[in-house]
Amino acid sequence: MTLGRPRAHWRVTDSTNERARELAAAGAPHGTLVTADEQTAGRGRQGRRWTAPPGSAVLMSLVLREFRPDLPLAAAVAVCEACECHASSLPCAIKWPNDIWVEERKLAGILIEGRPQEGWAVLGIGLNVDIDEDEFPPELRDIATSLLLGQGAPPIEDMVQGITRTLEARLETSEAEVLTAWRARDALRGREVRWADGSGTAAGIDDSGALLVETGDGRVTLDAGEIHLLR
């Protein structure tokens, strides 16, 4: 396995992505893994804060010096597969672009940052593992979940290793296979969605991973942004 070594672990840090970015800029090799028991300034997409009680979630970031255009899709599929290895009946789905859902509640999130011009990217993954419903902030209790609430909480280290294994395997498969696996877990296809500039019916993703939406004025292709379900 090339992912996961060397490894740096913090009991408490501001953000595993921030630590991984520093290591990458200093020359850390491909596959370097950063983990933490607790983050004080964890962040997700759109600048949101990622919060979890200490020792209750996978908080990990990988330094990648070899990365493919479909990395966001491959990472989302890999996290689903790692969770499904823990519990084969866990109904994991992906909300575009790469939030992991169980029964339409967020289980995990992925944040990719980096400097391609310098030859590196950082892949951050947060996965709720051992969090009871009343431990989520009140504003998240209706929209977040954890493995504990699904099929029971495994050891966090087992999930770190599981995600590392499934990601490495996915990055060795073809882009066509990744697309097929992602599309099989598409949580939005056929559903009404809205975004900052419009609304319509989600129609899957194209081969680049962009979201396709059918509107009254024709098909729209979205490369980035925040998508909300209307129903």
Descriptive overview:
With 231 residues, the chain is an alpha+beta fold. It folds into two domains: 178 residues, 2-Layer Sandwich (BirA Bifunctional Protein, domain 2), CATH 3.30.930; 38 residues, no CATH class. Helix content is 24%, strand content 32%. The protein contains five helices and twelve strands. Strand 5 and strand 6 form a beta hairpin. Helix 2 packs across helix 4 and helix 2 crosses helix 5. It is globular, with a radius of gyration of 17 Å. It starts with 6 loop residues before the first strand and ends with a strand. The model has no long low-confidence stretch (mean pLDDT 92).
Entry keywords:
5-stranded antiparallel β-sheet, 24% helix, 231 residues, 2 domains
Summarize the SSE layout with pairings.
Blueprint: E1 7-13, H1 16-25, E2 33-39, E3 57-64, H2 71-86, E4 92-95, E5 99-102, E6 105-115, E7 120-128, H3 147-150, H4 156-170, H5 175-184, E8 192-195, E9 198-205, E10 211-215, E11 218-222, E12 228-229
Parallel strand pairs: 1-2
Antiparallel strand pairs: 2-3, 3-7, 4-5, 5-6, 6-7, 8-9, 8-12, 9-10, 10-11
